[in-house]
Design a protein that fits this description.
single chain; Rossmann fold; 17 helices; 36% helix; 19% strand
Length: 493
């Protein structure tokens, strides 16, 4: 502990006041007195980036790190404590997926501010006795920290700095509803809490869980700076830390002081592959669900000429913007219980554009039935196709999630009942979405296919009538009471 050995007290106070990394070391000893902090390169980088945020040089920051790498302590505890020391009028909102976690951050900040050494470094910052609860406290000059959760809300509270720490529970990573709720809370409720949108700062610190988690959503915009630090480096990367350069080579572990070769091997063995790819490596695009694989989709050299039905299944998107969901259409010819996919279309079109695409596809493939979901644009698209003479079926989800509907059709998928017909220029994108569901950013082709599988399973084609014995099959016999050779049959008088 270098600060104990420093003889010049005034110099020590100046260093802790001005240098966030030095403050991190001292504050860590306050909250973790039994552990010695190893100041590794990645901690220096985080301190550098958070210092830039505190100074206002960075307004929007995303930090992606693996679990148990001190990201929450640095961002949600040490940063607000240091900034309040330098300006006790600042107001903070700290949000997490769980209220207990957010409250813990608030308690640790108060613990640091109440310490004797902190009072010596920052004599102007004092806690007010008027309002001091587990989740919220204020300073004597009006600064504050309010800790809350996604579900608790932030109505009526403003902030100069917003910290979002692990907003999505890892168990909800595959839940589209949970991910959408977090994004909606951020866009509609949280971001408007900045007292001054121009000078206000937001930092999101979270391990990656899904392509379309909150960091993934925010990264569609260029205003966010993203510091992404995988557990094991997958490429050579250079990071600027002030006047120094940290060079991280392929294979370098993020925290070599804590993770030796045996620890790395144990982590990879203990953690499921999809969890390691997302939470530890920050690579949601590398995740596959292992529900299906490419080998579950056999190939056929051409389209089947003989089939019972041709079915077109639509999953239309609500909007056509560049960041919106895709609309998707899967077209299959049904041969017994197997679906031969002859074409897949995916694109972003407004309703009129969808109608034009649909007309063109229907004119080529002459579908027996057209399926659309009974929500969003589905009914309007169904009405369009019905008006021009096609048999249309509006299909409901019966309240089941996409994952549940996918699982309900898993046996058919694993049995090879979905066959991809050549030529198939769409196959690589189609398969990528299938094998990565439910972790993929998009699932429109999945929706269209599962709708098709569900409907054909519940509505099988009628069995063919046997009208001759040329195939070696026994011809149908008339009912005995209708057989003219049967003298027992009733006769009309």
């Amino acid at each position: 502990m270098w600060w104990i050995k420093m003889p010049n007290r005034d110099l020590l106070i100046a260093i802790l006041h001005e240098d966030f990394l030095a403050f991190v070391e001292r504050a860590f000893a306050e909250v973790e007195p039994r552990v010695t902090l190893a100041v590794e390169d990645y901690i220096r980088l985080l301190a550098h980036e958070l210092t830039a945020l505190a100074a206002g040089d960075t307004k929007r920051l995303i930090l992606s790190l693996p679990p148990r790498h001190l990201k929450s302590l640095l961002t949600s505890v040490f940063l607000p404590a240091w900034m309040l020391g330098r300006d006790p009028r600042l107001r903070f909102i700290i949000v997490s997926h769980q209220m207990d976690l957010a409250t813990l951050f608030s308690r640790l900040i108060r613990q640091i501010i109440a310490s004797d050494w902190y009072a010596e470094v920052f004599p102007r910052t004092r806690l007010s006795s008027d309002h001091n609860t587990a989740s919220e406290f204020i300073t004597t000059v009006g600064g504050s920290v309010r800790a809350t959760s996604i579900n608790a809300g932030v109505t009526g509270h403003g902030a100069d700095v917003i910290i979002v720490d692990d907003p999505l529970d890892a168990h909800d990573a595959t839940s589209e509803v949970a991910r959408t709720n977090v994004i909606a809370f951020f866009n509609q409720a949280l971001i408007s809490r900045l007292d001054d949108p121009k000078s206000g700062r937001i930092v999101v610190v979270a391990q990656r869980l899904h392509d379309e988690d909150l960091p993934g959503h925010l990264l569609h915009s260029d205003v966010w700076k993203h510091v992404c630090l995988p557990f094991i480096a997958t490429e050579d990367t250079k990071y600027e830390i002030g006047n120094t350069l940290w060079h991280r080579s392929i294979g370098d572990v993020l925290s070599p002081a804590r993770f030796g070769p045996n620890d790395i091997a144990a982590t990879r063995e203990d953690v499921p592959s999809h969890v390691f790819a997302t939470q530890w490596q920050q690579q949601p695009t590398a995740v596959t669900s292992h529900w299906v694989s490419e080998s579950d989709f056999p190939r056929a050299p051409s389209w089947p000429p003989n089939y019972s039905r041709c079915i077109m299944s639509w999953d239309p998107a609500l909007k056509s913007g560049s960041h919106s969901d895709y609309s998707a259409c899967v077209i299959a010819r049904e041969v017994q219980q197997r679906l031969f996919i002859v074409n897949v279309w995916r694109g972003r079109e407004d309703f009129e554009g969808l109608c034009r695409v649909g007309d063109r596809l229907a004119d080529v493939w002459k579908p027996t039935y057209i399926l659309t979901e009974d929500t969003a644009l589905g009914p309007a698209l169904a009405e369009h196709f019905a008006r021009i003479g096609y048999r249309v079926v509006q299909v409901g989800t019966k309240g089941r999630s996409k994952a549940d509907r996918f699982q309900a059709n898993l046996a058919r998928l694993k049995a090879g009942d979905v066959v991809l017909c050549e030529p198939a220029p769409w196959a690589s994108v189609f398969i990528d979405e299938m094998v990565r569901f439910p972790f993929h950013a998009f699932d429109d082709q999945v929706d269209a296919l599962i709708q098709l599988l569900t409907w054909t399973r519940e509505n099988p084609p009628p069995p063919p009538r046997i009208i001759a014995s040329s195939l070696g099959l026994r011809p149908r016999q008339p009912h005995p009471m209708r057989d003219p050779k049967n003298f027992m049959r009733p006769r009309l008088r």
